[in-house]
Amino acid sequence: DDNIYDERLQKEFSSYGSITSAKVMRDDKAHSKGFGFVCFSSPEEATKAVTEMNGRMIGTKPLYVALAQRKEDRKAQLSQQYMQVRSQPMRMQQGHQMQMFQAPMYM
């Protein structure tokens, strides 16, 4: 949502603790990239914000809130989850083969 700026992000998360920074990521034309970062002064505050803010509507979109991970760590975790699902035996349902997948959701 292009109407969400750093100040609004900080205001929305401020009730969960002391914020050291809040940043909406933008492209070179100042349009929101659809994600941002909020840093708290303690892990407990961040965990509470993740728990209570995930799924809340801000502007026109629901938030996906999670603890930040380095891109390499996130890719490794997703790859591991994918391989676990692929290694499970296929289920039989009414004579048809069906494989169940889980995928994380991102904003």
Shape category: globular
Largest sheet: 2 strands, antiparallel
List low-confidence stretches: 92-107
- Decide which structural class fits the backbone: alpha+beta
List how many beta strands DSSP finds. Answer: 6
Side by side, the strands of the main sheet go 1-2
Mean pLDDT: 82
Distance between the termini: 11 Å
Count helical runs: 3
Cα gyration radius (Å): 18 Å
Write up this protein:
This protein is α+β, with helices and mostly antiparallel strands and 107 residues long. It contains three helices and six strands, in the order αββαββαββ. A two-stranded antiparallel sheet has the order 1-2. It has a two-stranded antiparallel ribbon with strand order 3-4. Strand 5 and strand 6 form a beta hairpin. The N and C termini lie close together (11 Å).
Question: What is the topological layout?
Answer:
Layout: H1 6-13, E1 19-26, E2 32-40, H2 43-53, E3 57-58, E4 61-62, H3 71-87, E5 91-93, E6 96-98
Antiparallel strand pairs: 1-2, 3-4, 5-6
Please sum up the structure shown.
The chain has 107 residues and is an alpha+beta fold.
Keywords, separated by commas or semicolons:
single chain, 25% strand, disordered C terminus, 34% helix, 107 residues, two-stranded antiparallel ribbon, globular, alpha+beta, 6 strands
